[in-house]
Give the backbone structure.
Amino acid sequence: MPESRLGQYQRIVILTGAGVSAESGIATFRDAGGLWENHDPMEIATPEAFARDPGLVYRFYNARREQLRNVDANPGHRAIARLQREFAGEVFLVTQNVDDLHERGGSEQVCHMHGELRAALCLHCGARHRTESSFDHATPCPDCAVSGGLRPDIVWFGEMPYHMQEIDVHLARCDLFISVGTSGQVYPAAGFVREALAAGADTIEINKDTSGVSTWFHQQRQGPSGELLPRLVEEILGAGA
C-alpha cells in the first residue's frame, strides 16, 4: 500500500479491540490471568452462566465496572478522536471493548458492538439505562421498577453483536480499514477485514503481535497502539493537508 494513497481516502473504518484498553491498564478478557474466583472468565460471559449463577456474574461485571474508575484514556484513544475531529472525510469507529475510554478520549461517535459495562438491560421491559454503580438481582429497573431482571448490557458468547447492519454498511463503502489491538479470533469482528477488502479498501493492522487475521492486511505495524496510532493519524492528516 503506497504511502502516497494516505491523502486519497474519504471513508475510514477503525476497529479497536482489547489491546487498546490494555495500554490503559485494563486487563484483557482473554489474558486476565486465566481464572477469576476459580472460574474461567470466558465461561462467565454466557446467558447459561447467568441463569446458573447470577450472583457470580453480577460480581464479575461489578468488579470490571469498578475498575473503570482507576483508568483513563491513552494516546491511542486520543489519536482516534483527533482523526474523527480533523479528517476531512468520514471516520466510523467500532469497538469490541465494553469500557468507555474512547468516549473519555474525546470520541463523540463510538459503535459498541459488544455492549457497554456502564449500561444495564432489563429483561422484564427491555429498557436500557446508563449506570456507574454496582447492581444485582435486588436492584429495581429504573423504568419498570421491577427487581430481578437487570443484567449487564454486554453481548455474551452465543449472542448476536449489536449494530451489525450499521457496521456492514460502513464496511461496504470504506476505502481504508484500520484494525487496532485485536486478536483476530472473535467473529464476526475477525471477518471485518475481509469485508473491507471485498469493498476494495486498503487495510492496516496495528498490534503488538501478529493476530489470527494478520495475513489479510496490506500493511502490518507491530508495536504499542499508544505509539503507533498517533503516528498513523499524523500521516493521514498530513497527507490530506
